[in-house]
Amino acid sequence: MLRRSLPAGDRLASKLAKGSRLTANTQAIARAMDDIASQGSAADAAAMGARVGISVRVTNRIEDVEAIWRSLSAAGLESPGQSYDFIRLWVTDRQIPVSAQHYVVGEVDGVPVALLPLHLKRVHGVRLYTWFPGPHAGCYAPLTDVRRLQELGTSGRSALWRSMIGALKGADLVYLRSMPDRIGEAEGLFDELGKALEVETLYRARFSSWEHCDREQRSRSRRKHDRQQGDRLAALGEVGFDVVCDLAEAHAVLDTMFAQRSARFRAQGIRDIFVCDNITSFYHAALDPNSGVDVRLHVLRLEGQIVAARYNIVVGDRMFCLISSMSDCSLIQSGSPGKQCLLRVVQSVFDEGMSVFDMGAGFTDEKRHWCNEQVPLRQHYVPLTPLGHLVMLGHSHFQRLRAWAKANASVKSALRAAHQLYERIRGKSRSDQL
């Protein structure tokens, strides 16, 4: 695929170079075309990989790579998005065709060193390979044997990634979102995997015990503030907190959680990705004891009614929060049920012996209060065709603009107001049509 597209890319780059009035964008496109030529073809990557003992296998069946996947997972995972059981349940629940599933195994001297689980899909007319769950996990990364990957060195890793990507066919772009810049203490393992853009941060609380966390993260004034909020909530009625274990009750709690999330999305003028994309069934399916996914559903109740909840997944000695919700009742919010729920969750997490509580990407006050570890996240792009290069340029510019807007309070507020106005106008237009 790549080799066939090169001549057209070269001709376009040549024509652009001859122009006397090249704009900054067309110059960038011309440089992108040169990049394709300098990277060589998939055959070149395979030949180079063979010289250093690299071989690649691709299968469309997740069961074919289960043993390799679980072996590479044994040292620990950065996210549920790397979990075999999580992804197996995802592709089953979402009914992703086998032909759209691609599991790429990279080996060095016959030993599996890396695995890329990728979804081939079409987005706005662009064919791309990407992670299966999209924005529904905090971060992603290839499954790797970290020690062997480190031993390969820069040139060896470059050959490995190029060989693995070179085995992928029928797309314009490989888009690997939200990848950490390090795995444990190992840094730079993915530096050679395409072009990287750092735009997000992952927030984690890492402590040896609740006492350690409480001592490091809560000042005297913070404890007083939490206690005052707790007193205000308790003044409204009996407060209870628990981990829901009964399956029927868990499904009912999840329905309430999604209803609370929907109300919050409407109030903020944000698209409800859980309902609009029909994702709710996946989270219900993960509750099943046979799903292989260890779900912990923490619930805060006031007079028996759910006022805040958190949907967490445990992988090894780490807990990952995927969804949180709270009541939108203004009277109840005076007692900060979301923060009171989180306080109890954090205490239970480290009391149970967890080493890490992962609260996901994106800055919030809650993460500032509890998280002592920040991990830069990168978007990785590997264009496979000239169209893929154009999409990479456009999307990376959009990501930079989005990160700037999110960091600017006034711009963020203006954009949110504009979006809410748009949603109201669209809603009125739909009602008029009815």
UniProtKB/TrEMBL annotation:
Q: Which Pfam families match?
A: Acetyltransf_6 (PF13480)
Domain BioF2-like acetyltransferase stretches:
220-368
Cite the entry's keywords alphabetically. Answer: Transferase
Which top-level group of life is the source organism from? Bacteria
GO MF annotation, one: transferase activity
Know the name of this protein?
GNAT family N-acetyltransferase
Species? Devosia marina
